[in-house]
Amino acid sequence: MAESVARGDFQGSTCPHDCPSTCALEIEVKRDAEGVGRGIGAVRGAAANSYTAGVICAKVSRYAERVHHPDRLLHPLLRTGPKGSGQFREIGWEEALDRTAEAFAERTARHGSETVWPYYYAGTMGLVQRDGIHRLRHVMRYSGQKNTICTALCESGWQAGVGHFGGPDPREMAEADLIVIWGGNPVATQVNVMTHVSRARKQRGAKLVVVDPYRTGTAAAADLHLAVRPGTDAALACAVMHIAFRDGHADRDYIARMSDAPAGLEAHLAARGPDWASAVTGLPVAVIEEFARLYNTTERAYIRCGYGFSRSRNGAAALHAVTCLPTVTGKWRHIGGGAFWSNRAIYHWDKTLIEGLDARDPGIRMLDQSRIGAVLTGDRRDLGEGPPVTALLIQNTNPVVVAPASGKVRRGFLRDDLFTCVHEQFLTDTAKYADIVLPATMFVEHDDLYQSGGHTHIQLGPKIVEPPGACRSNHEVLQGLAARLGAEHPGFRMTAREIADATLRASGWPGWEEVAAARWVDAAPDFAAAHYERGFGHPDGRFRFAPDWAAIGTDHAGMPALPDQMDAIDGADAEHPFRMVTAPARQFLNTTFTETPGARKREQCPAAMLHPKDAARLGVTEGGMVRLGNARGEVVVTARLAEGQQEGVVIVESIWPNGDFAGGIGINLLTSDDPGPPKGGAVFHDTAVWVQAEAAMERLAAE
Ligand SMILES: Nc1nc2c(c(=O)[nH]1)N[C@H]1C(S)=C(S)[C@@H](COP(=O)(O)OP(=O)(O)OC[C@H]3O[C@@H](n4cnc5c(=O)[nH]c(N)nc54)[C@H](O)[C@@H]3O)O[C@H]1N2
Ligand SMILES: Nc1nc2c(c(=O)[nH]1)N[C@H]1C(S)=C(S)[C@@H](COP(=O)(O)OP(=O)(O)OC[C@H]3O[C@@H](n4cnc5c(=O)[nH]c(N)nc54)[C@H](O)[C@@H]3O)O[C@H]1N2
Ligand code: SF4
Ligand SMILES: [Mo]
């Protein structure tokens, strides 16, 4: 920074990243001689927030590295070389927005408005800056987006049984005697869970159980780690329920009062005991019995569902089976008891203004976010009778790396007749395929409003420093395009802060100033609501052991009538003997932070974690190179030997940019874009692969 740093002070903010913790932050602002915020220094968690409790992850504590990164985009760019080459020249905002609007108008005239696909995700979770793109979409009648890359399978599985997106307050984990972290890795992905778990362990001697195919940081901290084979969680859940009925721990009164109590549940589970589950999950019978005894005999047992076990073709069915556990055993009744995935329904937002819902035509087609490769390569299953996609506006996401089946995605982005505008903070792999790149602000440089999936607070993220260079916020870009395209909506004439303020009030919350003064709103529902004492989310108030899958999605054929192991995964076979899981890396957040030196240094390089016996069989040693492949392609990564996972399981922590792989394309080359039933969802952890030692000569050639 050129400006002299006159004084530093800490301002309240909110972490904008796609993480259930949504931490309340305090950020040191560096000011110039005039007192204008020009940069940031230290970032810390707000001690006064009862969920954040003063703790944040290492990657965000180093955020000054990201805000002041020398590679930040500072000016709009026009492509001058081939798509993907990364060759651009600087242009002004007027020209950049004019060219983009002209391309959208010209293609709309030729193909109809659905040819434009405003494509977005959760680079920022701020409600105004993330979701404002829908306002342009709806007013202009551009194609809709079905969000399937992250939450769809969890949503389906949770909806199936519980029927409402809420549950026991996550702070109650501190009052539990047993916490089960099922298919999540909070030490890496939402560190604050561990704060509340630690309190329970210290104050109550609580036990921690982790269900995860490999020894994550969270599993390493557990009293009991159940290293299941990927995609077999429903079998484990069924066995625990079988044992509950067998040993007299089923709460028959609760089942009769609070569930659909389908005839035959007990008989159905009778055939799904520990021997059967052992064969499916690969866990010893004794371990299943131990977990079942611990769970079934502890009243205050809190199951924290992660996303990981939903990212399979049977993921929705698996999540449903796990939510059946606290219902069979009546745990929802107790403080610190029940299950939790996300609090998204407790905020009751009116998003009309943000999203332009009053302009929405439900007849406009919806395109599947995770199938962007299929969409861009003209797959009729995705396009329907509609026009090809010939123009993209991309905000907040990096699909060239994060979407599955990335070979197909790349082919789509290379299309000559496709116009792509990417609004970004860095020249990501996706931005490299753009015709126009627009420089974006970071969260400290614009105003926004946040909800929290993993706790109960509404929080603000005010603009506290001036943007560098010519960076503009997502909202400002949408305003600029709307003006040129003739898109009329009150939201385009308001500032981000005015929209946030109006949205708070329309949703029944205090306005911006009042929330700012109080720092946050705790939107926690009362105990009875959070524990579903007045009923679950279905019209009859009953939890469903027998879900109505057809009401959730059209692709419901073959889904289990009662909680069950669904035989649908990409099973290992003779040709593909390994099951691959592409779990989140601790220092990255999807591809965010892959550009910061602190995170890169700690993560080192893309790697495949192998069981030592598999490694010996393959002739691979620690630090050697291995090639992983299937019908979609092959990638080469470094081998790491790892105890604590079953043989035949390979873990590739993700998501490294394409350039970090020898072949120039990353791990999602191998993952499938098959939609998980019943309403879609990416199946990132459900991939059968072969693994080979990489011959020394080829390794040299790759380097
Ligand atoms: N450091 C870091 N933090 C992140 C992210 C990141 O990339 N890095 N991503 C953010 C985002 S977008 C999200 S959605 C959340 C996700 O947060 P999580 O829910 O924690 O992450 P998942 O990818 O869903 O995977 C979690 C765990 O599930 C395990 N898993 C995979 N398959 C199975 C299975 O079949 N059964 C079981 N029991 N476990 C399985 C994986 O091994 C992994 O350890 O984290 C957010 N926070
Ligand atoms: N193999 C594998 N693939 C996965 C996963 C996995 O576990 N394994 N996880 C999946 C999951 S859960 C998810 S959610 C997706 C996430 O995938 P993405 O949503 O694409 O997440 P990121 O890669 O972090 O990319 C977000 C981008 O938004 C940009 N950004 C941040 N803030 C702003 C802003 O205010 N304005 C603009 N214009 N841009 C901004 C950042 O610079 C960053 O490049 O990836 C999925 N892909
Ligand atoms: S734990 Fe999650 S919400 Fe908290 S600072 Fe880190 S990324 Fe942000
Ligand atoms: Mo996600």
UniProtKB/TrEMBL annotation:
The 4Fe-4S Mo/W bis-MGD-type domain, residue ranges: 8-71
Domain of life: Bacteria
Keywords of this entry: Iron, Iron-sulfur, Metal-binding
Gene Ontology MF, one: metal ion binding
Family, per entry: Belongs to the prokaryotic molybdopterin-containing oxidoreductase family.
Official protein name in the record: Molybdopterin oxidoreductase family protein
Gene source species: Roseicella frigidaeris
